[in-house]
Please model this.
Amino acid sequence: MKKENNGRTAVLPVILCVAALVLIIAYAFGTIGKGGASKTQTAVHEDDGFWKTKEQLENDKNITLYMQEAVLGSSERTKKLEVFVQEVSDVTKLEDKGILPFDLDKKTMYIKYSGTATYTVDLSPLTDADVTVNQGNKIVTICIPHVEEKLELNTDETQAQETQHDGIFSLGDLKVKPESMIKAQQDVTKNMREKLSKEKTKDNADKMAVMSVWEIYQPIIQQIDSSYAVNVEFAD
Model:
């Protein structure tokens, strides 16, 4: 009977050692499992970051579209924008040499014509290609055409001097033929355009166009994103 008890006593420590080993192994696997879960969690976090980046790209694209649509919508409503007006005048000379030789019955008259040059910029043809958005520098660039010049004679402001009698047999008022009046108006219109060109009025009107367009669109862009500024330049 003593021998059997001694055998059981010898086996007990072995069982305890095996149980401890099993617990250690189980704990180790449990730790590894937790480590794997941690890696999985990190991967999910990285995926979240990717989708945030993609979402940001979509937002940037939307901002560009919003700004382009706002500019184009306003340009369609505005269409032709009058930016500058310049008054101009010219004097022409009308003659009637009469029927006598050596200008014996010649008559002369001077007529002063007044005109108005109006400069407009046509915004209706603008497309999304004319509106670029630089999100890095926070600048919206709008490309516009140069101004158009329209010159009109103010016929109701025409001033005519009294007839000058250059010939000794010149009598009565000078009678202007319709074709002579048309020719006179064509000549003064040409002279007025030359004066406007010499004074670089169109260049000044272009500068006014840039300022006027900026004043229109800067508040519109600011409503979308106050950090953006507007730059206006010509398409060519």
Remarks:
- The longest strand covers residues 80-96.
- Residues 38 and 220 are 49 Å apart (CA to CA).
- The chain has one domain: 59-234.
